[in-house]
Amino acid sequence: MRTVISGGTIVTAADTYRADVLIDGERIAAIGTDLARDGDRIVDATGKLVMPGGIDVHTHLDMPFGGTTSCDDFTTGHLAALHGGTTMHIDFAQQPKGGSLRDGLETWNEKANGRAVMDYGFHMIITDARPEVIEELDWLVEQGVPSFKLFLAYPGVFMVDDDTLFAVMERAAGNGGLVMMHCENGQVIDTLVQRAISEGNTSPGWHYRTRPSTLEGESTERAIALAKVAGSPLYIVHVTCSEAVEAIARAREDGQRVWGESCIQYFHLTQDDLDRPGFEGAKFVCSPPLRTEADQARLWEAIRRDELEVISTDHCPFRFEDQKTLGADDFRAIPNGMPVIEERMSLLSTDVHDGHLSWNRLVEVASTNPAKLFGCYPQKGAIAPGSDADIVVWDADVEYTWTADRIHSAVDYTNFEGTTVRGAATHVFSRGELLIEHGEATDAATPGRGKFVHRRTFEHGRPGEYLGPKTTTLQEIHA
């Protein structure tokens, strides 16, 4: 079937213009005027924006954590994302302790097989970098998983020492991989946590009080220094605070290959939310924690100055009723994570109306930069002939209020309860198939239709230069 999206305003990371989009099969066939005569189906986008679908490069679906498992799988998480205007995500597979990277990838492939509704990729969390695992990194890149995440937090679970981190960075410097870092000083945090507990402080607000921003900044500086010596590119995930932004900005100014990501919740919520009455603050426990309004202002400045290049979600949903309450008597046992995959694009749309960024910058940080950095541009993250027809028709003016009964995630709350936003997807296409129409999933939105995206390594250029993959032509991508 040939579909024409007619009369809309196309918004890309670089341009805004009126044109029709012709979809033939899974891809964009043409962009031009008066294309409606070429379509079997016409979608009237008059008065609306036509954008590449959102790409969320930081999610945790069906992930074991803290004695439980995140409650969205690759079906409920995908349906929530699609309703919100996101058409692809990259999830974190996890190496089992004592196991191989192959074991971790096979486990996450099984989680996605038969359940995925939209396209997806994987990063790999490295928990045990034995010499044979370091060797395995080259194999992982060949499998289309060229990004590896390591932690400087969570001692005894995820945290790696500097020797291990440096060995992975050196390998990535040679095989085209991208090292991703969770930057918090886990050992000092553990000391502060133990002290808080010994003094009888067990409520959710002590989560942020024991994870100060100084320790995120110090850890970010350390990761950047090691990457510089190793000659490795570096991507800092979920940046929350001024100290971390400043470290990234200095490195980029010096020409180091460092990129930074923040998450939408850090722009809209603060640490005060963890001090809500009763146990409500548990809904807002994530790591690193929410920060201050001053930190929010610095994050927005970083987005405007291109010191941060991606806004993702770190979507990691745990139900309040029976999962977050595991930590009712001890904040250490509250599963860390927030459900944000559906709300992200509407919040960013509202941020455009509020003057924080432009529509073009929204597309850049929520779709195009993620695709470029993680090796799937211009297949994804673009509206261009030959690109996958992952397209969102966006009503920029519709207003509504987020409530728990509006979301499509398997979680039982939204962190944005009562928040009025401006902007929603009216039509969402994934590889040419219309999956969401006027807020409802179509018959095409079936588990199992989503495909694994085999991602390529990217050009390790200096910040500000082209971030695209080494293989950049659509002809080569689809060969």
Structural commentary:
The protein has an 8-stranded parallel beta sheet with strand order 8-11-12-13-14-15-16-17. It has helices at 76-84, 101-112, 131-142, 162-175, 186-198, 205-209, 213-230, 242-253, 265-268, 293-304, 344-353, 359-373, 474-477; strands at 2-6, 9-11, 16-18, 20-24, 27-32, 41-44, 49-52, 54-59, 64-65, 68-69, 86-94, 119-125, 147-151, 178-182, 234-236, 258-263, 310-312, 391-401, 420-430, 433-437, 440-441. It contains 13 helices and 21 strands. Mean pLDDT is 95; it is low at 460-472. By secondary structure, the chain is of the alpha/beta class. Helices cover 29% and strands 22% of the residues. It has 2 domains: 2-51 and 387-396 and 421-477, Urease, subunit C, domain 1 (Roll); 53-373, TIM Barrel (Alpha-Beta Barrel). The longest helix is centred in the middle third of the chain and has 18 residues, at 213-230.
Instruction: Specify the CATH architecture of the largest domain.
Output: Alpha-Beta Barrel
For the biggest sheet, the summary is: 8 strands, parallel
Spatial separation of the terminal alpha carbons: 22 Å
**Please, how many domains?**
2
CATH superfamily of the largest domain: Metal-dependent hydrolases
CATH topology of the largest domain: TIM Barrel
Catalogue the unreliable spans: 460-472
Can you tell me the overall shape? globular
For this structure, what is the CATH class of the largest domain? Alpha Beta
